[in-house]
Design goal:
InterPro entries: BPD_transp_1_N, MetI-like, MetI-like_sf. It is a multi-pass membrane protein. The protein is mainly α. It has two domains: 83 residues, no CATH class; 186 residues, Orthogonal Bundle (MetI-like fold). Helix content is 79%, strand content 0%. The protein contains 13 helices and no strands. α5 crosses α8.
């Protein structure tokens, strides 16, 4: 290989990641415009909502000026984006408190919940999916596939209610709701996180199990795995040593989609378990018609989904040598 070829091979992954980074930034910009425009066309006056129905027109107009709602929409958008880029999410129309600190605190709760839920899903899906694939013609494999199909049909909130009824009400092992920061009491935080994480991860684990099964079945039909088994390796060692890396590429795609689904599904789970997360803050802001808070929360969720997709694209480059060569 010549020097030019080596440089091109080394620049390949970096160039691919740079292109995906540009797409991520552009998508975030478009998302911010769409979110702002959607909130701008919603009926109702935030100043009127903040003051109540008995406020005088003069006071409403004064409040609109205070909120900056009397300025052109382009100016409002640029001020909002400029604040976001510097970490200033503005002041709530309803509570008159800065949105940024509240959003950061709530986001921490949601990230813990989503991360734990994804961990539960992976711990369930990877071993069960492999068993369902390797033993797909045996009763154990068929049973795992059937259980996964049933799990797909169960809503996360129903799983949460059942778990609360069993482990909180009947057995009394775990709390039915509430949140304790890990810095205050690590044990109480862990006990309070178990049921929400399992509720969120069970359904996603069932979905992921089926994808893992399909990916492993495809890999088992490849020539390199049949060769490894012909050389004397048993099915599971051959799959672990030579097959899982190839099976991981399509599964990573599903993981990215599921992580975005978990971000949205956390809204319901936070309500069931009374967790002070981003989903609860969003629902409270919608109920209070605090449009600036809703606007900021929605954008954070959208950027979170875009970030997940960007990281998935980067993982493709790491896992699949063909992408690095291209």
């Amino acid at each position: 290989m010549t020097t030019a070829e080596r440089l091109a091979a080394g620049a390949g992954p970096a160039a691919a990641i740079a292109r995906r980074l540009v797409i991520f930034v552009a998508s975030g910009f478009v998302a911010s415009v769409v979110v702002f425009a959607f909130m701008a066309v919603l009926p109702g006056d935030p100043a009127q909502v903040a003051l109540g129905v008995n406020a005088t027109p003069e006071l409403v107009e004064q409040t609109r000026q205070q909120f900056g709602l009397d300025r052109p929409l382009v100016t409002q958008y640029l001020d909002w984006m400029g604040g976001l880029l510097t970490g200033d999410f503005g002041t709530s129309y309803v509570t008159k408190e800065p949105i940024g600190p509240q959003l950061v605190d709530r986001l921490g709760v949601t990230l813990w919940l989503v991360g734990a839920g994804m961990l539960v899903a992976v711990l369930i899906a990877v071993p069960l999916g492999i068993v369902a694939a390797v033993r797909h013609r045996k009763p154990s494999g068929v049973g795992v596939s059937a259980a996964a199909q049933v799990g797909v049909a169960v809503p996360a909130f129903l799983a949460a209610i059942i778990l609360v009824q069993v482990f909180s009400v009947q057995l009394g092992w775990l709390p039915s709701g509430g949140w304790t920061p890990p810095a205050y009491d690590l044990g109480a935080w862990l006990r309070g996180l178990i049921l929400p994480a399992v509720s969120l991860g069970l359904v996603q684990g069932a979905v992921l199990t089926r994808y893992v099964r399909s990916a492993v079945l495809d890999v088992q039909r490849e020539d390199f795995l049949r060769t490894a088994r012909a050389k004397g390796l048993r099915p599971y060692p051959a799959l672990v040593r030579h097959g899982l890396r190839n099976a991981a590429v399509p599964v990573v795609t599903v993981l990215g989609v599921q992580l975005a689904t978990l971000l949205v599904g956390a809204v319901v789970i936070e309500r069931v378990f009374v967790l002070p997360g981003l989903g609860s803050m969003l629902l409270d802001s919608v109920a209070a018609r605090d449009l600036l808070a809703v606007q900021s929360i929605v954008l954070v969720l959208v950027v979170g989904v875009l970030l997940v997709n960007f990281l998935v694209d980067v993982l493709y480059t790491v896992l699949d040598p063909r992408l690095r060569r291209s």
